[in-house]
Amino acid sequence: MERQRPQLFSRICLDDPVYFLGHTDRESIFLQFASGDPISKELAQKYLERFSAKDKKMEFYNAPHALNAAARLDRDRWLQKHLAIKKIDEKELGRFRN
User: In this structure, are residues 91 and 69 in contact, taking their beta carbons and an 8 Å threshold?
Assistant: First the structure.
């Protein structure tokens, strides 16, 4: 099974936002892209426009596909706001994410 996993992931695009359009709450969406991603800002904007969410946000980061600490912090802050979770200890979080 372990050998089949990379083949499976090469056949499906789990990180392609278009596949999540029907699974959003239609209220808010935050798309993050890296300079290392094979996507143009124009195409990313088209993805964003396909979401009918009232609160839409998109950011590009100078980072490899896995993104960087700034992107993770932005994501954590966005999730904190939209999921109403308690304040994130950003200093502690940085210890585990760097």
Answer: no
51-61 residue pLDDT tens: 888 889 999 99
Low-confidence ranges of the chain (pLDDT < 50): 1, 98
SS (H, E, C) 6-33: HHHHHHCCCCCHHHHHHHCCCCEEEEEE
Distance, in Å, from the CA atom of 2 to the CA atom of 5, rounded to the nearest integer, reads 5
| 59, 33 contact by CB (below 8 A) | yes
Beta bridge mates, 59? 32
Whether the CA torsion 6, 42, 52, 62 is positive or negative: it is positive
Q: Using DSSP, state whether 58 is helix, strand or coil.
A: strand
Token pair of 16, please?
A: 């392609």
